[in-house]
């Protein structure tokens, strides 16, 4: 890596993604800097969170420079036994593998009667910031699908206001209360494919074969919609970070197998692809 980073434009390779094409000589890293970066396995979200903003930005910049060195890395990581869970309004979860989940959902009364949102996580779960973001995403859809909860929340705001006349409600509280009163009935179910639990470090993310794992998820969605008799027009697929690329591959596989498109596919903060060939 040091030789590649220090190579001059005349001696470096000219094709592909070489350093001399992407970076100016003043941006090349010295051998000492390269040695200090460490392994990609050491680059974790916890490590970045513990660093100052300046140090974290410097480390990410160095890693980016390393990624510009010409390399041909084929993605090879295809995790198995990815867990799936279905959150319930009472706080419980149905947890199972992909293969087992379809059978369990058959036992759920009225599952998929309206909209079904499938979320593919794409960040390591060993970071509290990620866990918090995942919880908020699921909670947002739980609230959206639970009109009764919205109405009760609006009533709570009204009670709080009458009990404390000295506190003026914020505009957001007033808007929320009015929206809860006038909200249209909307129900749905959430399925979380917890791919992030199989991505413990940056190396697993970098080497993830998004096409292969996406095809696996796409085939499962086909099987689920067939066995549960769910119309494809009700399926909303969401992918987070590297999961956004996986969700796209899953949607393409669904279309390839069925000739139909899912109602909606959303990518949340899609990450850059590290390994080539994708």
Quick recap of the structure?
By secondary structure, the protein is α/β, with parallel strands linked by helices. The protein has helices at 2-6, 19-22, 31-37, 45-50, 53-67, 98-106, 128-145, 147-163, 171-182, 202-206, 210-227, 242-258; strands spanning 83-87, 93-97, 115-120, 188-193, 235-240, 264-268.
Shape: elongated
Number of helices: 12
β-strand percent reads: 5-15%
Total domain units: 2
| CATH-defined superfamily of the largest domain | Alpha/Beta hydrolase fold, catalytic domain
CATH fold naming of the largest domain:
Rossmann fold
Helix content: 40-55%
Mean pLDDT over the residues? 75
The CATH architecture term of the largest domain is 3-Layer(aba) Sandwich
Largest sheet: 6 strands, mixed
Q: Sketch the topology as an H/E string, one letter per element.
A: HHHHHEEHEHHHEHHEHE
Taking the alpha carbons of the first and last residues, their distance comes to 23 Å
Structural class call reads alpha/beta
CATH C-level name of the largest domain = Alpha Beta
Radius of gyration: 23 Å
Largest sheet strand order: 2-1-4-3-5-6
Low-confidence stretches: 1-21, 163-167, 169-185
Number of strands: 6
GO molecular function, one term: serine hydrolase activity
Family: Belongs to the AB hydrolase superfamily. Lipase family.
Keywords: Secreted, Signal
Domain Lipase: 115-276
């Amino acid at each position: 890596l040091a030789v590649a980073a220090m190579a001059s434009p005349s001696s470096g390779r000219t094709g592909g993604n070489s350093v001399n094409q992407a970076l100016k000589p003043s941006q090349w890293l010295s051998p000492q800097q390269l040695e200090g970066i460490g392994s990609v396995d050491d680059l974790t979200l916890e490590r970045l969170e513990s660093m100052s903003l300046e140090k974290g930005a410097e480390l990410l910049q160095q890693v980016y420079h390393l990624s510009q060195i010409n390399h041909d890395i084929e993605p090879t990581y295809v995790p198995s036994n990815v867990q799936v869970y279905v959150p319930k309004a009472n706080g419980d979860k149905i947890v199972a593998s992909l293969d087992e989940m379809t059978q369990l959902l058959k036992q759920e009364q009225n599952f998929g009667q309206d909209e079904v949102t499938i979320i593919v996580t794409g960040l390591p779960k060993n970071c509290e910031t990620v866990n918090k973001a995942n919880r908020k995403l699921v909670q947002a859809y739980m609230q959206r699908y639970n009109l009764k909860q919205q109405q009760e929340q609006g009533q709570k705001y009204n009670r709080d206001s009458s009990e404390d006349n000295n506190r003026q409600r914020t505009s957001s509280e007033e808007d929320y209360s009015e929206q809860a009163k006038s909200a249209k009935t909307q129900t749905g179910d959430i399925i979380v494919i917890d791919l992030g639990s199989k991505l413990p470090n940056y190396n697993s993310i970098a080497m993830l074969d998004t096409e292969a794992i996406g095809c696996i998820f796409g085939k499962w969605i086909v099987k689920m919609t067939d066995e549960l008799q769910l119309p494809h027009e009700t399926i909303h697929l969401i992918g987070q970070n590297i999961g956004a690329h996986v969700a796209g591959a899953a949607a393409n596989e669904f279309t390839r197998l069925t000739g139909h498109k899912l109602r909606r596919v959303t990518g949340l903060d899609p990450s850059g692809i590290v390994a080539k060939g994708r």
